Amino acid sequence: MTGRAPRVVVVGAGVIGAAITFVLSRAGVPATLVDRGPLGGGTSSRCDGNVLVIDKDPGYQGALARLSQDLLHAWAGDLGDIEYRRPGSYLALAGDDEVEPARAWVADQRREGLDFSYLDAAATHRVMPDLAADVPGSVYSPTDSTLNPLAYVAALVAKSRQAGAETRPHAPVAAVATGGGRATGVHFEDGSTLAADVVVVAAGVWTPSLLEPLGVAVPIRPRRGHLVVSTKGPRFGDVKVMEFGYLMAKFGRERVVPADVDRYGVALVYEPTRAGNFILGSSREFVGFDTTPDPDVLRAIVRRALRFYPAMAEATVLRGFAGLRPWTPDHLPVVGWVPSVPGLLVAAGHEGDGIGLAAVTGKLVADLVLEQPPPLAMSPLAVDRFATEVL
To answer: Do 191 and 174 form a contact (C-beta atoms < 8 A)?
Structure first.
């Protein structure tokens, strides 16, 4: 690098690419954000708006999520109306067999310095009176927040442009350009090239297709998830609620649940929105790049919600949709330099945590580009950590 700020092209204008561009541009780095479609039109347009630590494994994953929450909280006042609020979130227990595991989960998180609480049945129903009467308790995380994903992406992009960043939507990248053994920019499908000192591939589930021609393999796979949206009113509380079994579905752990719940990786997610309706989730399936909503999965999500909210039978479903989570085997994103291709960075593989981890990912990538010390160790996110895995 010379004394000038490096020119950076960020490939992928979802929430991760937008957050990276936001941090870089505010640091005075000339950055261009490119995407094959509209800005925020991929996975970031097919998700909920959760910024959570409650569903993270204790240790590094939790610390990463907590740092991202603090960064977003500091940004929120500058981003305008992104429907940001910080009500905390809850994990509701499905039965008495989950009480001791939930208490142990809280103890583990507290040992890691996170603010978690266990609520018994009485305390749980005082906060969430619409829950089924047999719910024996819940876990509470007060720092969890929520926002509107597309508003978040749009605000990050708008602030980046104000700081001097360029954006190129509807500009499909054909390949990462290389020369002299390093990344030198990107080639577009129309035959043009954009030169850069650093290329950041933040293309979510499409990241492997850009890396594989360079001999770089990362085990990022699309994992489909469904969401159900209700009409306005009635709602069943103003707090974010998941079931404790969401952790089991997310991390592939054994659960005792109905067959369809197990088959589709379904777990309750209840998210009230500012618009007066609510969102229900969720599911987890490996079905390639198919985002076609499956009616059987949507029905399984609704049935699971009724187990926790029996009165929800009176609500009306407006629509259902599906998106693709960029999954990795250890449930951590891939963020870092590609050792074999100088000048090439990867920031992808956030699974269902892209909205929540966007802020910290932007910070980490900017620190790498500017050769500044990151706020936490990055070896758990390294591109080559899967080198011994069978891909």
So the answer is: no
Q: What is the DSSP string of 325-379?
A: EEE-TTS--EEEE-TTSTTEEEEE--GGGHHHHHHHHHHHHHHHHTT---SS--G
Under a CB-based contact definition with an 8 Å cutoff, are residues 49 and 229 in contact? no
CATH number at residue 342: 3.50.50.60
List pLDDT tens digits, range 200-256.
999 999 999 999 999 999 999 999 999 999 999 899 999 999 999 888 777 777 788
Q: Check whether 195 has a pLDDT greater than 50.
A: yes
pLDDT band at 135 (very low <50, low <70, confident <90, very high): very high
DSSP 292: P
Domain with 206 in it: 8-46+150-220+330-386
The burial class, CB within 10 Å (0-12 / 13-18 / 19+), for 239 is middle
Examine residue 117 and say whether the peptide bond preceding it is cis (omega within 30 degrees of 0). Answer: no
CA distances from 79 to 162, 293, 359, 361, 381 (A): 12, 32, 12, 17, 28
For residue 377, count other CB atoms closer than 10 A to its CB.
10
User: Do 179 and 271 lie in a common domain?
Assistant: no
Query: Nearest to residue 211, comparing CAs of 223, 221, 201?
Result: 201
